[in-house]
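Supplementary Methods. Inverse-folding protocol.

Structures were first reduced to a discrete structure-token string of length 396. This string, shown here, constituted the complete conditioning input.
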């Protein structure tokens, strides 16, 4: 048995972790745009990266380290993805991190992460000069979370303390960013998780991947997979406490909250929608159709207009390639059934009820396939004029 409860502190809540965000002049408004995460003792580290074949330079640099390397420092910049920048991009990461090690000799095997415009070399001088503003004893999680934002409308942080049956405890804090280029394909954003739990290195990968399956792997804003997507888990073990079941449970809670915050913050989005698929023949088919629904442009635009166009939902299910039949299919907007096993329930009154559901900030679209027992929930949002406006002038 264990208990857990939310606490303040974000990414620096655990023992020995520090963070801050400063302005390097990358954002035109003078807001924080470079952040760091520092641990005063070495951390075990595990990561999940994008499935995009054109991985950004920071990911390529990370992959040059030995498999079981330890670290105590992460540097993050916004406004520039350092992706598709060739060998020079990787060399720039090394040069910047060498400068950081020179200024702060306690830094060991530093990691860099970037987000922003693709195809532009890093402004090295500005980033290095920002190190003069770094104070590795600070715990300003709000500034750190703001610094990594790009088109995000709000910062995304969360932290828990976990108390085990023997009364020992550990803490987990996290922050992430993401609002566009979000597709259910591994990480689909930047997410950093820090804990003082004493996790064996052998547990970290499985815990991270298991938690990602129904969280960051289940969200979509626009169906595009970024070059920089990263989930990074750091553990310095300073609490001396750990329980695999408890850690895995709370880790998934944290990642689920951050993942749905990303969808809620989707560029131009006005609503968070859970696409719950039930009764699929296999788990793979349940995932396939749920993700297809979360990515369908026709479904997304209908949601934006508060139009309960269940025909678009049925069409997407049929086009997904899974085993299905109109004779077993059921479609609900929350509690409102609009189609059931060949019968259409879409008279004036029911259509009005379904339209009212779509006006809510969050709701479920439930699809009972009627071919098996497997289920999956994917998360998506609507798509409207603001998304086009944001991405039409993203580089400005």
């Amino acid at each position: 048995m264990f208990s857990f409860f939310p606490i303040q502190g974000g990414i620096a809540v655990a023992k020995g972790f520090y963070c801050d965000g400063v302005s390097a002049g990358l954002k035109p408004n003078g807001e924080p745009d470079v952040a760091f995460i520092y641990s005063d003792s070495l951390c075990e580290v595990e990561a999940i990266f994008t499935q995009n074949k054109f991985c950004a330079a920071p990911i390529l640099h990370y992959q040059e380290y030995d498999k079981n390397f330890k670290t105590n420092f992460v540097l993050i910049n916004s406004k520039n993805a350092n992706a598709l920048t060739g060998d020079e991009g990787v060399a720039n990461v090394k040069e910047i991190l060498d400068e950081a090690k020179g200024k702060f000799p306690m830094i060991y095997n530093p990691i860099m992460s970037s987000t922003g415009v693709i195809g532009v070399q890093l402004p090295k001088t500005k980033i290095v000069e920002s190190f003069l503003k770094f104070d590795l004893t600070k715990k300003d999680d709000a500034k750190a979370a703001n610094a990594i934002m790009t088109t995000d409308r709000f910062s995304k942080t969360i932290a828990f303390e976990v108390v085990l049956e023997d009364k020992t405890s550990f803490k987990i804090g996290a922050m992430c960013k993401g609002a566009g280029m979000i597709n259910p394909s591994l990480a689909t954003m930047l997410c950093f998780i820090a804990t003082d739990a004493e996790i064996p290195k052998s547990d970290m990968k499985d815990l991270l991947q298991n938690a990602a399956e129904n969280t960051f792997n289940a969200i979509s804003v626009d169906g595009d997979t970024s070059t920089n997507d990263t989930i990074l888990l750091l553990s310095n073990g300073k609490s001396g406490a750990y329980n695999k079941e408890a850690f895995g449970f709370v880790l998934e809670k944290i990642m689920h909250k951050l993942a749905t915050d990303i969808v809620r913050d989707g560029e131009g989005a006005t609503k968070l929608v859970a696409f719950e698929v039930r009764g699929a023949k296999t788990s793979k088919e349940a995932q396939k159709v749920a993700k297809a629904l979360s990515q369908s442009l026709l479904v997304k635009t209908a949601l934006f207009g508060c139009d309960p166009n269940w025909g678009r939902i049925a069409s997407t299910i049929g086009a997904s390639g899974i085993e299905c039949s109109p004779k077993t299919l059921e479609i609900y907007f929350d509690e409102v059934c609009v189609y059931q096993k060949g019968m259409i329930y879409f008279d004036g009154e029911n259509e009005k009820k379904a339209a009212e559901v779509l006006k809510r900030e969050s709701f479920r679209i439930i699809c009972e396939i009627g071919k098996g027992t497997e289920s999956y929930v994917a998360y998506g949002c609507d798509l409207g004029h603001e998304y086009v406006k944001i991405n039409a002038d993203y580089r400005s």
